[in-house]
Amino acid sequence: MSRPPLTHRLSSLITSDQAVSDLRCYFGTGRDEAVPFTGSRFEHLAGGGDRQAVANVVTADDLIAVQTLSVRIPAQVAVDLLEGDLGVRLSELLSSVPVYIDMVEAEAADLAEGSPAHAAWRLLCDQRGVGWVTAGKLLARKRPRLLPVYDQVVRCVLGRPRPFWLALHGALRADDHALHHNLIALRESADLPATVSALRVCDVVLWMHHRTDHQQRGCIGT
Predict the structure, then answer these.
(1) How far is Cα 88 from Cα 72, in angstroms, rounded to an integer?
(2) Residue 151 pLDDT greater than 70, yes or no
């Protein structure tokens, strides 16, 4: 049986010769001592957004963390997340979203439309000035092992799979979780700490692979 297109596409990019060097460049673990990308601090800034004390609340550190990925939460929305009803509503949803499991370990129901995770994403998307990219990045900060960073560049290189969370979940679980295992091996080859999630490894490899071409030509994801 042939692999689904998304699984095949992901596997080809993750196992490419360029993947390790791209990761080392992004996270600054290469021998050339290059300055790492600001996004390398996304998961780890201030101890991470999923640490036990703050896993279910949005903090000022989370709002700064998403800026390392070149997005901003509008000021009024940020205040509402920190001090208002929006923050309370989001916290209620986050309390029902698994924290310490990888996407590959989750059930499809944890990611499907109607799940607390999807409801949290929808709630954020409904805020003025917060689009699907920013909403996804904030949730990836709170659940880096379960929910992926996903933007126009990654969407473009993967050909707009829908719904993305479930498509990626299926790809990670295919072939006895082969893709997930490859991501863990890739993380080790790039000398990254185990605290960098498999999803983040995947996102960075895809983004680094396509970011220049995406900016220079008219891609389907722009």
Answers:
(1) 20
(2) yes
